[in-house]
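Data availability (excerpt). The following record was deposited with the supplementary files.
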Amino acid sequence: MTEEQYIPLIHRSLTDQLSEGEMDHLQEWLATNAQNQEIYADIVEGWEITNNYELPVAVDTDRAFDKFLKTTQENTTTTTTKSPTPVRRLWPAISAVAAIGLLLIGVIWAWKATQTNQPILVETIATTPRTLVTLPDQSVVTLNQGAKISYDPDFTERKIQLNGEAFFDITKNPQKPFTILTKNTATTVLGTSFNIKNEATKTTVTVFTGKVSFEDRAGKNGSLILTPTQRGIYQSNNQSLHKEGDIALETLNWQKEKINFDEEKLSKILPALETFYGVSIKLKEPTINNCTYTGHFERSSLNNALETLTLTFNKELTFTKKANNIILDGAGCPPSN
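Predicted structure:
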């Protein structure tokens, strides 16, 4: 790609419109030499200036661009006529003029983008798991890694946009419903806790407490009312919406730092540990599932959790661990009446 072809990439990177492949190309171009980095820095500086500057007059960008092309063409012709031999030496200067012209066009374009009625949104992108965000109404959102939320800074409407997975603990306000928008769905609540996982092919809402209204934004399926342990699923391939019940909420624990159990069977605990630690647990003896346990597990140490289980059952329970695969062995427990 030529230098001029990279300048639109820079503009698009400033508005988060680059694909992963385009971003790789841009990073490689920046690493090539210091001149490319200077061009990038100049364009970023121009972008930042236009975000805080209002032009007093209207700008005819098409006319400006035509004039720029005409000027550069005239300069090229004049230079070639007067001295045909040193054209190669003059090309860096012409390139510089072109770069400056494109920079000015980029600045004008950026200015025009800031003059729309769209407000500047507050955005948070989670670069690590379990990123906590407290919203202006004191609702708390826990973002899974890679998830992104955005909302109007004045938050007069309790409304946010979500991409990825997040757990919500919403402050109750009957006068102002809280709405979460994804590309295809809208979830509305008054005050509750629930998990939303927004993927390319589907969006899933699982309710922990309270009541949730879940619908597709196209309005083709009506809406679902979801209560605790219920889940709503929107499939984007066929634009369908359906409900599931009796969801094991303890398996949705990615947002927690600690999980607690009180006389729970291992049949319930082990699936929770699988999602909590991101491992697979298999049993050599199925009756192990009948054993019960009271206590808690912290995310920091999987080995400590497994050793705690073996000590609880007087070492009658043993484990072997290979990478993320764990096998539990032991005598197990009789079924409870």
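Summary of structural features: DSSP finds seven helices and 19 strands in the chain.
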